[in-house]
């Protein structure tokens, strides 16, 4: 497949990716609202079978329900986070290919030392990871440049480096795709939780502002709403930060391996070319 076909294919994948993202958000919102309204808001969990009344027996689902209408929004954010975390995990696992990357890189380096380019290409076909794809493109160019008599050594080295950089540029975006969703959730989860906190405190102060004795039920409900949303928002943000940093570290380490393999490729070519 040439680079033009690869870019066209990536454009199609990008369109499908947006549809997938929108679908995940919409489906998460529907599921979250159903869980909040029908499961957590089950009348059996409340005094007098009225969700506006006190929770019976300290049921945790009912307590979360008391967080108010911001809860399904926070649950949506959490479901989206979990979905794209799983998606990133699967994608990175596939990008790593078969076997250990360190062993694969060492094998390629040994093949390069012995000028066994064809064997190295076969090893890339077996490994089937992003690193293997990048190295295969470089190895094919490596052998072609060895046979080229129209360019001098420096021109060949530059051509090999360019080929490697272009192949890397086609592979790496797939690794970091959707990480922006995790970083966005890390920011907005706290803000949504804060919004729920403010709404809960408004309800609590409204109960206090009534003439005569304060409405104890409304006061307790408002405070519960504030605290539940705060906990949900902070928890979601914390989980998103941990997952984002985890996947970013995996991608950085993977990028270092690609750079290491590319450096070995160029150095081997420079040493073997007159």
Quick one: biggest sheet? Answer: none
- How many helices? The count is 9
What portion of residues is helical? over 70%
> How far from one another are the termini?
31 Å
> Which runs of at least 5 residues are low in confidence (pLDDT < 50)?
none
Shape descriptor:
rod-shaped
Overall pLDDT confidence: 86
In quaternary terms, these chains amount to single chain
Rg from C-alpha positions? 28 Å
- Order of H and E elements: HHHHHHHHH
Q: SS-based structural class?
A: mainly alpha
Tally of discrete structural domains: 1
- Strand composition percent: under 5%
Say how many strands there are: 0
Descriptive account of the structure:
With 274 residues, the chain is mainly α. The chain has helices at residues 3-40, 60-65, 70-96, 101-113, 117-127, 130-147, 153-176, 179-208, 216-272. Helix 3 packs antiparallel against helix 8, helix 4 runs antiparallel to helix 5 and helix 8 packs antiparallel against helix 9 (216-272). The model has no long low-confidence stretch (mean pLDDT 86).
List the topology elements.
Elements: H1 3-40, H2 60-65, H3 70-96, H4 101-113, H5 117-127, H6 130-147, H7 153-176, H8 179-208, H9 216-272
How is this structure best summarized?
This protein is 82% helix and 0% strand. The protein has helices at residues 3-40, 60-65, 70-96, 101-113, 117-127, 130-147, 153-176, 179-208, 216-272.
Tags for this model:
mainly alpha; 82% helix
């Amino acid at each position: 497949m040439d680079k033009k076909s690869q870019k066209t294919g990536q454009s199609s994948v990008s369109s499908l990716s947006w549809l997938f993202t929108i679908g995940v958000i919409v489906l998460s919102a529907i599921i979250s609202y159903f869980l909040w309204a029908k499961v957590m808001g089950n009348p059996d969990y409340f005094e007098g079978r009225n969700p506006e009344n006190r929770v019976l027996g300290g049921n945790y689902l009912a307590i979360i329900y008391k967080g108010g209408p911001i809860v399904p929004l926070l649950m949506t954010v959490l479901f989206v986070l979990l979905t794209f975390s799983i998606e990133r995990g699967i994608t990175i696992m596939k990008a790593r290919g078969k076997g250990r990357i360190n062993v694969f890189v060492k094998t390629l380096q040994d093949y390069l030392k012995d000028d066994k380019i064809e064997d190295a290409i076969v090893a890339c076909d077996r490994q089937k990871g992003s690193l293997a794809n990048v190295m295969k493109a470089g190895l094919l160019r490596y052998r072609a440049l060895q046979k080229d008599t129209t360019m001098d050594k420096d021109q060949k080295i530059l051509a090999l480096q360019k080929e490697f950089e272009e192949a890397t540029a086609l592979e790496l975006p797939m690794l970091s795709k959707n990480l922006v969703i995790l970083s966005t959730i890390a920011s907005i989860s706290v803000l949504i939780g804060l919004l729920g906190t403010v709404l809960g405190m408004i309800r609590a102060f409204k109960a206090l502002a009534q003439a005569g004795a304060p409405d104890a039920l409304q006061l307790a409900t408002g405070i519960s709403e504030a605290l539940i949303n705060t906990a949900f928002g902070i928890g979601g943000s914390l989980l998103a930060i941990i997952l984002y940093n985890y996947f970013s570290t995996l991608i950085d380490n993977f990028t270092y391996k690609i750079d290491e393999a590319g450096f070995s490729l160029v150095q081997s070519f420079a040493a073997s070319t007159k």
